[in-house]
Amino acid sequence: MALFLVQHGRTPESDDPERGLSDEGRADVTRIGTVAKGYGVAPARIFHGGKPRAKETAKLLAELLAPAGGVVARQGLAPGDDPGALRAYLDPAENLMLVGHVPFLEQLTGLLVTGTAERRVVRFQPGGIVCLDREPERRSWFVKWMLQPHID
């Protein structure tokens, strides 16, 4: 199983929590999605947390990666949600892509890799993808690779 974690793309500067992506955000997501497609990234489904910026990011990636299970809004991917609740849902037989927000994605990664959500093991970038994989015999997760829009 591979778990692809994606922070939504960049948004315009605004206090509006329902804002969508900026032009730069759409360009970053499209560029990273194109690279991922070239590498053969193939999620079975793409879940997003429901906010417009996550939904738009998920749809842009789905247009490129064509997940058989489509794009689905899912509870539990909001910035303040408990990553432990999602861990129990992860199916080791299915490649999933989760499009969401920080700090949730960083907490989920810390929880899966180290056993504690408080330990940050990776810094997400808007529009970037972090791939986690699992060693079935040890039931532990590790960071396999990352695609980031910027080197900074």
Written account of the structure:
It is a single chain. By secondary structure, this protein is of the alpha/beta class. It has a single domain (2-9, 19-147), classed as Phosphoglycerate mutase-like (Rossmann fold). The chain contains 4 helices and 6 strands. It has a 6-stranded mixed β-sheet with strand order 3-2-4-1-5-6, sandwiched between helices. Strand 5 and strand 6 (140-147) form a beta hairpin. Helix 1 packs parallel to helix 2 (52-65). The termini are far apart. The mean pLDDT is 93.
Can you describe this structure in just a few lines?
The protein is about 30% helix and about 20% strand. By secondary structure, it is α/β, with parallel strands linked by helices. Strand 5 (about 130-135) and strand 6 (about 140-145) form a beta hairpin.
Key features of this structure:
alpha/beta, 6 strands, globular, 6-stranded mixed β-sheet, 152 residues, Rossmann fold
How would you state the average pLDDT, rounded? Answer: 93
| Uncertain residue segments | none
Radius of gyration of CA atoms, rounded to a whole number: 14 Å
CATH topology title: Rossmann fold
